[in-house]
Write a structure and sequence with these properties.
49% helix, single chain, two-stranded antiparallel ribbon, 2 strands
């Protein structure tokens, strides 16, 4: 199966969508997103890494079996 490259605008829209899903607790698996985006799981991993590099703390919770955004704690 051949996959087309994402352009910059589509990539940024998908990053925003990943943040939205994670903030709502609906980002369940890499395979789910890869199918939705028509890309590889590795590409989704790179996208999550890109978000982390931007300062968004998004991590997988094995207990809840989904990706979540960790909000900063007030001190």
């Amino acid at each position: 199966m051949t996959r087309r490259k994402m352009d910059y605008v589509k990539y940024e829209q998908r990053l925003a969508y990943l943040v939205e899903l994670a903030s709502k607790g609906r980002l369940l698996s890499l395979s789910q997103i890869a199918l939705s985006f028509d890309c590889s799981e590795r590409t989704v991993k790179r996208m999550l890494s890109h978000l982390r590099n931007k300062g968004i703390s998004i991590n997988y919770s094995p207990a809840l079996k989904k990706f979540l955004i960790n909000l900063p704690q007030d001190k």
